[in-house]
Design goal:
about 210 residues; alpha/beta; five-stranded parallel sheet; 9 strands; about 15% strand; Ribosomal_uS2
Length: about 210
């Protein structure tokens, strides 16, 4: 089995190709076909988009940028929080993971420390500095976040499914077409983390060599 085939098989094992419903017209570029009225997402295109997002994250690490994670699904809480901690620990940036259910203006408001109480009685923290990237785990459910990020010119990396409306899809800078299963979200976060940390380590080695040369 080739490396490409192995990676595609790993994507298939996460169920990322199983769309929940028929695709909107603008999403059909990522569709492989349909089955029982449901969209089958082309895993090759998911991989291409995932690589593009990972490359952007690596460039962000090189520039010492901040990533802000937005999660609305309790099933992903542990994965997202672990990803945020790992990136923060390696980059020393002010990255935050955040669970949002219903809160507008979290980006467009001032960047002073602020707290919110969700309807699930969970304490949430808004960003205290302008993020350089927003990672969204469901572009449709957190459409307000996508719109606010676009308004501020902040790049958005998001998992998008076949029924995400065009008005939100167009504002996602790096869309990753896939079903947001727990297994795929884990893989997605793992790829982002490894790319970010690897680039930080590479830059750290460069700095050490530069210091030795001086």
């Amino acid at each position: 089995m080739t490396l490409h085939a192995a990676v595609i098989q790993k994507l298939l094992n996460t169920g990322s190709h199983l769309g929940r419903r028929a695709a909107e017209h603008h999403f059909k570029q990522y569709a492989y076909g349909t089955r029982n009225g449901m969209t089958i997402i082309d895993s090759d295109k998911t991989l291409i988009c995932l690589r593009s997002a990972a490359s952007f994250v690596a460039n962000l690490a090189r520039a010492k940028g901040n990533i802000f994670f937005v999660n609305t699904n309790p099933l992903f809480d542990e994965i997202v929080e672990l990803t945020s901690r790992r990136i923060q620990g390696e980059s020393y940036n002010h990255n935050r993971s955040m669970n949002l259910w219903k809160m507008g203006g979290f980006l467009t408001n001032s960047y002073s420390p602020k707290k919110f109480r969700s309807r699930h009685k969970k304490l949430c923290f808004g960003p205290t500095t302008m993020p350089d990237c927003v990672v969204v785990f469901d572009a449709e459910r957190k459409s307000s976040v996508v719109l606010e990020a676009a308004k501020l010119g902040i790049p958005v990396v998001a998992i998008v499914d076949p029924n995400v409306p065009l008005e939100f899809f167009e504002k996602v800078t790096y869309p990753v077409p896939a079903r947001d299963s727990v297994k795929f979200v884990y893989l997605f976060c793992n790829v982002i983390t490894k790319c970010f940390v690897a680039e930080q380590m590479r830059m750290g080695i460069k700095d050490v060599v530069k210091d030795l040369a001086e």
